[in-house]
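note to self: dont lose this again. the chain is below, predicted strucutre after it. 234 aa total, dont forget to put it in the shared folder this time
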Amino acid sequence: MSFRLKAVVLLGVAGAAVASAVALTGPTARAATERCGDYCVSMASQSFGSGQVIAETSSGATLLAPGFNPEEDFVALAVGTVSQLAGAGKIPASLAPTYGNEIVYQFAYQPAGKITDTCLAASGLTAGSAVKVQSCGWPQEIIPESILPTNTLWIGVHRDASGDFEPFVNVEASASSALVLTATSAGGPLTINYMQLGYGGVASDQMWESLIGIYGQTQVWPTPTGDEPAWPLR
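---
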């Protein structure tokens, strides 16, 4: 299907490193273009399958068929753990007791490998708010260290994982209740919405499997705590 998140550990704000493991698997859904390459991720919804991955379009973030499509090129940046960032005053302290050592990410938009200063973000704080790319809070070609808009920060809740899938909680919208990245339909827009829990775990339209690498060459990253190549400044 896809890859578990490919990330670079950016812990200048917290002063620590995050460890993890990478495992290889067979054929999966693939989307990153040749120019974006090994550093790009694509994200597939559990609800709609590997034939639908996150893309940035003129109407915002949506699901599209995977392929050599630069609109689907994102780089996942691991910023630190929830506890580290909350302790450093970068995110609400109320998140630390709930999410502790879960990893916080930014998903930088890098179409065809072009570095931009935009990241996947929630456009509002309420359920149903659209997801689109907005400023990451850092200048082009500068790795973020101190200015991190919390609407661009996503907590990968690995404790709620099912296989290679897990939910992503938006930091800014979730100081009191978990609002997570949500797929609305195949080919449809993405939103944030309240985490839905049932006997089978988190709702499938709120569970995401990440893809890493060039289209046609993929590997699964089964946990969000692993050894991965450093993100190149290109």
